[in-house]
Amino acid sequence: MPTKAKMKQMFMIAALAAIALPPAGAQSRKATANARTADKAGSASDDTFDRAKTLRAAADALGMVRWSDIGAGGVHLPAVDVVNTMEFWGSGTTYGSGQAYKSGASWPSFKTEYHIALAYNPPAMRVEMTRTNPDAPVQGGAAPLHTIQVVRDKYAWDESEIGAGLVPGKGTATAAMAAVSNRLIQLWILPYGVVKAALAAGDKTRISIENGATVITFPLSGQLAGATVKATLDAKNEVMRVETRADNPALGEMLTETEYSDYADHGEIPTDIKSPGHVVQKQGGHPVLDIQVKKVDANNPYLVFPVPENVKKAAAH
Amino acid sequence: MMRFFRYRSMIAVAAALCLLPAAVIAQQLSQVSRTTNTPPAPSGPTPRTPDGHPDLSGVWNGLGDNLIGVPNQMANAGIAVETETSTRDVFSGARIATFPRNSTSPLNDEQAERASTLVRRMGSNRPIYKPQYWETVRNLDQNANEEDPSNNCMPAGVPRAGIPSFIGQTPKYLIFIYPGQGGLIATQTSYRMIPLDGRQHTPLQELDGTYTGEAIGHWEGDTLVVDTYGFNSSTWFDQVGGYFHSENMHVIERFHRNGNTLTWTATVNDPDVLLEPWTTTPRVALLNPNPKAVLPESLPCSERDLAHLATKEHH
To answer: Does residue A118 contact residue A190 with C-beta atoms inside 8 Å?
Structure first.
């Protein structure tokens, strides 16, 4: 049983707490009143709430937000964005951009096998593409080819084989510095890139409703400063459409539209990270890409993008 | 499909059987729930031995263990959850988006294991292998349940074993003891004897490769430097990632005591397979505050789960 002195002490603590802390009901009423005020004024706090809620919903829809406390009693970590490295395999059709055989004709199409390795920390992407045209003669100047295009931060280069130019006798790497922006933007218009970049843009990110759908609009930064991304979410908060219009010397003014659909966990080893099963991209209204995703490794696989020395030297000049 | 290989239960068994003092300390620490995985700030003086060097001796398991537990493994992999709204990749400095949990309920086993697989691999500090080995590393990691030597009761080796749970120190040598949890789970207890007498390495070609190699220590100011080579190629050099190595691996470890904390890094150089030397993210161990703390006997490692694996999901 508490002693008299202890009871007196407990009473004083309770009294102080009652003075210092408003009742829960009062706090709730105050929060509601604040929300109403924000509604009327369309204030920054309202925007902040919408932005945080929308981006969290988009991140959750993709399975990007996780925590795990296994084996560490007493540690309860907050949730974090777990997406760093990822690998995609797909096949479909690509189109020779602006290479129509006749004026006004559609751009030539090619059967294409895609293999994409990417990372967000640091931002990097390696796109290996094998293009064939077995069903028709090649017209319009675009011949069958196998390409490996890489970008990392401010460097871009082409590889004759994966990892070329890093050790003697293993292929060649050719600097392609003019392609940095064009390649880098592909990373940030993937669904995960959209969420990451929108979060990074902070209060420059705007949330709106268009035709009943949630739209996220934000500017890119760094190498891609001047480009704006507009992403539309579907009813499940998955990124279904991304439009980019660049005001950037390297990217030009062309509108790029990318549509994502058929989201699922496409991994051989399940991760609960969802990725699109179908990707269609248009530039200036012309289709440039129509890919069915066959497999995804989203388990942060071992993917590295060391910059070959000759590429660093070329960039320095 | 029924899955028998339960990381969570194995962790619990390993902790219970191998790390009783650690578990007791972890229980003491857990009375104050932490929402970060950063180590506590150092406190207290750094004791010195009569010859003037920092005294590294003691039981270094005050955080329960520096390897077991996903939050600790995230920290070791360079992901520092600093506050409830801020997370940083230690190697690159990149900020990582941090969110409130959207559930107060514990994750089920499947959710927790998938999440732990991702969070332990999301760091940017990765060894850079020569390109001809990129696919090998990826495949080893993907098939880690069967390929990881530590899942087969093999010694964790160096530097995977990390910070020893016990250090004994004399002017002429140090003794390191690693209880039988090794890397992640199911590994053997191992020990190392580190001479400090100024001797030189045996020529590499005269050494038979071993799990812990030939180690020689020296002091650089207040930092203990342990230089080791003469390994076999039967271990991986980090907790996750499929990071295999050759018999030509050379490891430099640095130990620095600050009050009740011990900071450790290792630099791995293996010119046969790596494009460049790789340095681990610094790890920090906390001194067991119980002056009577001892390490209990580890039970023999006995692996009985691999035959029941139904998927390639990591653990």
So the answer is: yes
**Residue B28 contacts A, CB cutoff 8 Å:** no
CA distance B93 to B90: 5
Q: How far is A106 from chain B (nearest CA, A)?
A: 39
pLDDT digits (tens, 9 = 90+) for A103-127: 666 677 889 999 999 999 999 999 9
Is the CB of residue A168 less than 8 Å away from at least one CB of chain B? no
Mean pLDDT of A201-206: 96
How many CA atoms lie less than 13 Å away from A163 in the CB half-sphere? 15
> The whole model's pTM is what?
0.86
* pLDDT single digits (tens) A128-145: 999 887 555 555 555 668
Asked if residue A301 lies in contact with residue A270, where contact means CB atoms within 8 angstroms, the answer is no
Secondary element (H or E) of residue A61: helix A44-62
Smallest Cβ distance to B96: which of A70, A80, A167?
A80
Residues 41-60 of B with CB under 8 A from A: none
pLDDT digits (tens, 9 = 90+) for A267-317: 989 999 999 999 999 988 889 999 999 999 999 999 999 999 999 999 998
Place of tokens 């390696």: A126
Distance from CA of B56 to the nearest CA of A (A): 25
Residue A222 one-letter amino acid: G
pLDDT at A31 over 60: no
Contacts of A299 in chain B (CB under 8 A): 117-118, 121, 142, 314
Token code pair at residue B58: 């003691």
Would strands B214-220 and B223-229 be described as parallel, antiparallel, or unpaired? antiparallel
CA nearest A297 in B: which residue?
Answer: B142
Span A64-87, pLDDT tens digits: 999 988 877 778 899 999 999 999
Look at the domain A82-303+311-316 and name its fold: outer membrane lipoprotein receptor (LolB), chain A (2.50.20)
Residues 6+ apart with CB under 8 A from B250: B227, B228, B229, B268, B269, B270
Residues within 8 A of A (CB atoms), B 105-144 only: 107, 111-119, 121-124, 126, 128-132, 134, 137-138, 141-142
pLDDT tens by residue, B14-53:
333 333 334 334 444 444 467 898 887 899 999 999 999 9
* CA-wise closest residue to A290 among A122, A106, A54: A106
A122–B134 C-beta distance less than 8 A: no
A70–B113 CB contact, under 8 Å: yes
Nearest CA in chain A to B314: A269
The amino acid sitting at B99 is: F
The model's confidence at residue A43, banded by pLDDT at 50, 70 and 90, is low
* Other beta carbons less than 10 A from residue B77's beta carbon: 28
CB contact at 8 A, A293 and A277? yes
Instruction: Provide the mean pLDDT of chain A.
Output: 84
- Cα–Cα distances in angstroms (integers) from residue A213 to residues A207, A219, A257, in the given order: 10, 20, 17
How far is A108 from B2, CA to CA, in rounded Å?
50
- Residues from chain B that touch A295, judged by Cβ atoms under 8 A, are none
Which of A49, A62, A77 to mutate to test binding with chain B, by most B CBs within 10 Å of its CB?
Answer: A77
Q: Which residues of B186-198 are buried (b: 16+ CB within 10 A; e: fewer)?
A: bbbbbebebebee
